[in-house]
Amino acid sequence: MNALVRGTNYGSLVVDNSSTDHSIRAAACSANGILSEVAWSGNAKDVPTVKQLSGFGSQFDKITAACLSVDKKTLYAGTAGGCIRLFDWPICSDKPPFREYMAHHVGNDASGAGPVGITGIRATKHYLITTGSDGSIFLAQIQTIAEQSLGDGTFFEPDPRSFNNGVVLVCSESYKEQQELIADLERRISTLQSDHDFALHSKDSMWQGAMKELSEKTDELIEGERQRFDELQRKHEETIQRHVEDLETKDSSYSSTMRELEDQYEHRLAVEIERFDRLKEKMDSLQKEVNK
From the record, what ranges are coiled-coil (predicted)? Predict the structure, then answer.
């Protein structure tokens, strides 16, 4: 979407995208005091509609700043003459009705000074804040503006003698002292914050070093215990191996010894049987001789 108004420079912009149908509506104030409203349905094929509000009268009627109310129902427009104009939002025509409230200056006073133009305007739920070309800042209740503003392009003009009646004057020296005090406090806060950050960084570095040293010592102890365990494991395996070998050796020796004993026993048994047989033969011979 592109809406172009040639030969115009904009300085203040308000946008309303609160509609449920995805449409977008915006208003912009140009340097020549013209207020332009652009409405777009949100469809790329649709052409945006543009309304321009101008020709309100003198140069003091030029709109210099604008903002929307919180409920998106009122457009507050500041003028070069220091007035606040209230338009129903969205704007209904090129010359919509409005209400006006005198904000920054009440006509021309005895000193001959002219109206103070509004350079900025913002709205909250209950207050409207405006800034003037003379460096002033005004804060007014929205309820008061609604009550004291009139329709049909007219406005309620208060008594010039009561202008700035609610303003609190501040001594410039006291203001400067407060500013210096605030700056000093900010410097002290910044210094304390820096010291605190440095202390935290130092503590963090110290604890990291201590943890690293402790971790290295722990790793050394673990490595020493691992080596000791490996050595004990090796000795244990060697002992088991020797024990198995001893058992195998003893078993082999036992078998050999048993075979030798068996052989000796069989040999002796054979010798005794042979001797017994010879003795028996002799006894039989003697018995025969006796019987004769």
Answer: 175-289
